Fold:
Amino acid sequence: MYDVVIIGAGPHALSLLSRMLINTPDKYEERPDNKSLFFKNKSGVYKTKVKDNPQTRNTPRQLSTYLRKGGVIDENVLNNICVIDRHGGWMTQWSKQFDALGISHLRSTSSIHPDAFDLHTLVQFAEDHRREGELLEIDGGIRGSKFTGPFIVPSLGLFWDFCKSVVKRHKLEDFVTKGFVTRLLPKDGGYDVCLASGDVIVAKQVVVATGNIGVKRIPGWARDVYDGCVDGSLLHTWDIINNSDATGIHTSDVCKQMVKLNMRNPINNTGNTVVIVGGGLSSAHLVVKAAMSGADQIHLVCRSSIKVRQFDLELEWIGRSRFIKLADFYSMKSFEKRSHVVRSSRGGGSITPYVHQQLVKLQESGRLIIHEDTEVWECNKDENHWSIQLSNGHMVDCYIIWLATGSIVDVTMNPLFCDVIKELPINIIDDLPVLTDDLEWGCGSGLYVMGALGGLVLGPDALNLAGARGGASRIAHRLKC
Structure:
């Protein structure tokens, strides 16, 4: 029996182990009991002590020494912990997802990463390796009183190499067990972690750190045709990512293969036409990938108007007023109100200014047509092509449809929690579980949840890298007790 089993080996799990291994306290741990950041007034309302952006507590020389030699870590923490991931390696699914969508830079700023030693280790890593050119400075008109910077985001390659260095410094290279967890069964004194292979791993405590494990959101008009489409001409974003995962092919290869197949199609005006449904960043990246792969005509169908903003949250959650927003969130005793904040602060899909510029160029070239405030009314397949009726009156014939319609985050639809909900019932509000302040599934259960399902405790960026860092700080001290 393991003391702790961590399900998933993405940035949430890596952030957790980093926080557990590094003994140095972090002034900026986002927990209501962190007295360096928050205090309760006489009315029981949380307030923040910090009014400026987080600052490093180390000199560049100290950061470089840590990056080169590693810091003081508590290796005893690892004695009886098991990390299980279906790929058998750190952040493999995360990397494949970014690669499949052709994402060049992260959306989060350079201070948000899994290394618990210091917020500025990523920037120092770039400087030490002479890779400052991979730190992209962004502005795009977002500078203001709510956030004055820094506006620096790392490239995917830089962030990936930095995370590999975190794994190496913490001596976690061969720490991940390959396995796909299908069920989580509560039992006296712990849990049975059931794998698809039939093996069962027994644990006293479990951390579910699987990131975005929501159910694919399939629009109503596509449900009848989606399941029956086996030729690859109608795919959800996660299908594209999983195809890349399973076969080693990437989005561009998928696109090229489809275009090549469709060149045999005698129907006019459909051969190189792609329809992408969705209005978020994933849909925009797929537009660019389709164009790069040879699609002559691309239709982007958006249910609402396109929102252009650098971050996927309201700006107050990113800048120096973040701690004020968190204090207000922690003060809310009503989880219904917290749920409203979580959903309203994200405000649906949005596109970064950089990617939006690429869409504008494709529009100007005539290769991209954007249908805003438009829905698909009807979709039919005739032989080897699709006919799509849009609510704006346009009819589009195409061979490829990609659904960039996101996921449904609903704990009741997650197979890992089916038995847990029955055996250890807790309140569920708007599909999210009401966890303890330490992200535990009820006091004393020994089950902890990271990622989007922790939104009622962590706030609207629970799924993001900031949520990984915040979640790690809450769970780590419990697991080390």
In short: The longest strand covers residues 200-208. Residues 2-213+409-479 form a domain with the FAD/NAD(P)-binding domain fold (CATH 3.50.50.60). Confidence is low (pLDDT under 50) at residues 245-253, 259-270. The radius of gyration is 23 Å.
